[in-house]
Amino acid sequence: MSGSEFQLIEWLRARVGRDPRVPVGIGDDAAVIAPSAGAAGLVAVDMLMEGVHFTLPPATPRDVGRKALAVNLSDIAAMAGVPTLAVVAVALPRARGYEFAQELHRGLHELAREFDVALAGGDTNVWDGGLVVAVTVFGEATARGPVLRGGARPGDWILVTGALGGSLAGKHLSFVPRVREALRLHEAAGLNAMIDLSDGLATDLHRVLDESKVGAVLRAEAIPVSDAARAAADGRTPLEHALEDGEDFELLFTLAEEDARRLLASPPIELPLAHIGEITTGSGCELIDTDGKRRALPRAGWEHAF
Amino acid sequence: MSGSEFQLIEWLRARVGRDPRVPVGIGDDAAVIAPSAGAAGLVAVDMLMEGVHFTLPPATPRDVGRKALAVNLSDIAAMAGVPTLAVVAVALPRARGYEFAQELHRGLHELAREFDVALAGGDTNVWDGGLVVAVTVFGEATARGPVLRGGARPGDWILVTGALGGSLAGKHLSFVPRVREALRLHEAAGLNAMIDLSDGLATDLHRVLDESKVGAVLRAEAIPVSDAARAAADGRTPLEHALEDGEDFELLFTLAEEDARRLLASPPIELPLAHIGEITTGSGCELIDTDGKRRALPRAGWEHAF
């Protein structure tokens, strides 16, 4: 195997150019970052592990690097924030070698460039275990402030971007984090609460409800089901996929009815927007099935257990 | 096994408490942090992996949690910065269970409290691989500015704190990051360059020399050798341990001769300070052995290879 950690760091350093937001980047004990302009700062961290969040193959190292940053950008999007900086810690499987590590970083850098995120630093390690990538992303809230999970109010409409379910068929690697969409939506309409759908609509909606101390009613027929969810043919219905599958990385948000009507009448983004239900007083979530029957929608979806 | 990720997050959330530096902490997509007061920001990230940076046992999960933060605080110390916030990403081995995870976080929280570091957020995952902990720490430089690796000048004296070598015997888990010492030293004397000794004196000194584009001469007899290095009895000399062992987490710094003399005459810290050599023009490092012979000191010590 050619190369070493030192070589990789030098390669990274040459590759990651200068950025005014990072006066001192890769190559010192810590990165020096310019002070923020007074906006509230945002920080998100996500760790991806081989065999849990991806498998190699079908994922390539480039896919994994891209996804490791993308899931974090999705978190910043969920706050309606602007991502600015990232740092990356990697545990590389020894047997995979130097070019694998370069490919991983290439995937990450490509997405960073696309979203104008500066790479401020990292930690690169080699071991005999599986690939682990942990990315920490910084961002800034806009003048409207961050959108929290806890701001939903009774009467709010619940909207989602895109189409849901079946992400494992490919979207979980190729999704585009909804950073630009979140900014435009918040600017256009003033969102009350938002979350990115990482663990499935049912689970993530419950997180918003719990934080906001409210309930919700959803209409099954209004939930946008992806083609991949329809194609799954694994005994679960497309609706079940849309409700329970993780890693959609679409946005779920709530806002006042009049703002929602305005938004839907003149959407500021190209992605489809679906009005899937309303926030209610009380707690928990009801689902109105296509036959009109109401049933409780339990917290479900993707949750790692010990 | 009892518990789940959700339970753990709720436990963490109840445990971490409010901090004015983190208006929104654990429990949202990203943490909201207060804007900095205008100081240059610092960011460090380090990942610890089972079998590489610790073994369980002899290390306890509490030790590992503590160390995962401590290595990052040591990086902030090496910039003469004040650590303020941390985020933590963990890959937990499924078989270890819930209490193991709690113990890990307890170790981390104890050290965070000791250094007044707010825990802003994290990501907790379970998998079938070994334990991995990645911590990202934020800090702020003081009014004197951060101390970089690249500031050493010919004529500077080279000093180190504490005693070196043999860290694997225990210090690699129990070391106290030299945050307070770095601040006092920089305030008292204006340091030109600094690094924390994580990969061994020889390797880390070369990093300072490379970044500063200078050389150095060290005197073997002046290098402070730890009791653990003397006790090692593994065929390597105590000096070799002091030069090559990783994870001392002491500070190596350079400063002008007159400042160094003043510092040594009236040290602002209780830890021993040793004057081990000088910065020269040129490149690379020479070691003057105890018998007066000069030899090149190669870059050595702890480096992970593919």
Inertia-based shape of chain A: globular
- State the helical fraction of chain A: 25-40%
Secondary structure category of chain A: alpha+beta
Largest interface: A-B, 80 and 80 residues
Low-confidence stretches of chain A: none
User: What is the helix/strand order of chain A?
Assistant: HEEHEHEEEHHEHEHHEHEEE
Outline the biggest β-sheet of chain A.
7 strands, mixed
Content of β-strand of chain A: 25-35%
H/I helix tally of chain A: 9
Instruction: Give the N-terminus to C-terminus distance of chain A in angstroms.
Output: 36 Å
Number of E-state strands of chain A: 12
Average the pLDDT over all residues of chain A and give the rounded result.
Answer: 91
- Name the assembly state: homodimer
Structure description:
Two copies of one chain form a homodimer. Chain A is globular. The model of chain A has no long low-confidence stretch (mean pLDDT 91). Chain A has helices at residues 5-15, 61-77, 97-114, 171-174, 179-189, 201-212, 227-231, 238-244, 257-265, and strands spanning 31-33, 41-49, 81-93, 118-127, 132-141, 157-161, 193-196, 215-219, 251-255, 273-280, 284-288, 294-296. Chain A starts with a helix and ends in a 10-residue tail after the last strand. In chain A, strand 3, helix 3 and strand 4 form a beta-alpha-beta unit. Chain A is of the alpha+beta class. The first copy, chain A, is built from nine helices and twelve strands. In chain A, the strands form two sheets. Chain A has a seven-stranded mixed β-sheet, sandwiched between helices. A four-stranded mixed β-sheet of chain A has the order 2-5-3-4. Chains A and B meet through strand 1, strand 2, helix 2, strand 3 and helix 3 of A and strand 1, strand 2, helix 2, strand 3 and helix 3 of B.
